[in-house]
Amino acid sequence: MKTAGIIAEFNPFHNGHKYLIDTVRQKTGAENIVILCSGNFVQRGLPAIFDKSLRSKTAIENGADVVFELPVCYSTASAETFATSSVSFFNKLNSIDYLCFGCETENTKLLEEIAHVLADEPTEYRDSLLENLKSGMTFPKARGISLKKYMLSKNPAIIQEDFDNIISSSNNILAIEYLKALYKTSSKIKAFFIKRQGAGYNDTNINMEFASASGIRNALSDNHTPDLSSVIPANSLSLYSKAEPIFLKHFSEILGYILLQESDFTKYSDVSDFLSNRINNLKGNYTGYEDFISMLQSKNYTYAGISRCLCHILLGITKADMDYFKDNDYLKFGRLLAFRKDSGVLSAIKNNSNINLISKFSDYYSVCDDFDRKILDINIKADSIYRMVYANKYKKELSTEFNRKIIIQ
């Protein structure tokens, strides 16, 4: 019995995700598809457009067998931590044969070469990286420059434009991080590449079969109801039509209040001294979440990077938290969000895995150790903020962590 794992956000679920699941099943011969999905906040530091229960249901209705939640401390982290924590989770299930992911290049050999350099960190590359960091570059920029210099020096046959395109693509960057994590953990899981179809990650065009999640979110954020029937599976569209979307702007008031309470933000994950000072100096001009991100942008900080940092401030995720979690190998539990009752993979996971599977949150929370409780407490806080903002906007309540029901199809 072959089982494939997919790390996803489904923000929201669309035709491209359906294509990914169907193609994985067809090309790998996998009988089971296990999803590790972000919860109510995602990797770009954004709130999920729909809550995690609804997004899990769309995955199950479109071919997934089991959906687990990636805790918010990892789902909002850098690409490296996002990927490493996810691969660590799949390794511990002892049930996954393939890790399947999309990429925006057909040059998968170059992706693998890049991942090996980052995993092995040869001296020449490492020295260049340290030199760039000392000059004041952010880590992503320093790493990109050092990596390019090293790889072009070792392999002049590499086309510079191809290399630049690969390391500037969000999906390719994640693919490299997945590969690196597999290499560094000597994982038995095999990587399986799926070429991304249609729109690019940040493409806002929705007039095609495979529109991007970004394009769909942008269309939904406007004050009208777009026709998404050509880009979202019919069963998912039916669920979305009864749901209310959440956007970054809805968190403006609560973030503004939090920023007024402190003057030093360096304790929060990914926030540098420079960015902390910039936040403190500019918060007097704060008018809203999205505008403030744009205000904070500089040559060293991208929109996504700043969004991620502000998300960590919003949710209270600190550097000390993340160091503690990394030192203890990320995850010792799996929070079950949804599953198909006719699939046998959940039973196999229960028999084979090295982690605790959470089916009833309150029962596990009452007996878990301090490490697990710390991760769960951060999740509880994040979901409480999401629920509060949703309730304020729509005068309706979402389920809490303690009364949320597992989706069973």
From TrEMBL:
Annotated catalysed reactions? cytidine(34) in elongator tRNA(Met) + acetate + ATP = N(4)-acetylcytidine(34) in elongator tRNA(Met) + AMP + diphosphate
Protein origin, superkingdom? Bacteria
One Pfam entry name:
HIGH_NTase1
Localization in the cell: Cytoplasm
| Annotated positions binding ATP | 7-20, 102, 171, 196
Its EC number(s): 6.3.4.-
- Identify the InterPro entries for this entry: Rossmann-like_a/b/a_fold, tRNA(Met)_cyd_acetate_ligase
Which key words tag this protein in UniProt? ATP-binding, Cytoplasm, Ligase, Nucleotide-binding, RNA-binding, tRNA processing, tRNA-binding
UniProt function note? Catalyzes the formation of N(4)-acetylcytidine (ac(4)C) at the wobble position of elongator tRNA(Met), using acetate and ATP as substrates. First activates an acetate ion to form acetyladenylate (Ac-AMP) and then transfers the acetyl group to tRNA to form ac(4)C34.
Family according to the record: Belongs to the TmcAL family.
Q: Could you identify this protein by its name?
A: tRNA(Met) cytidine acetate ligase
Q: Which organism is it from?
A: Eubacterium segne
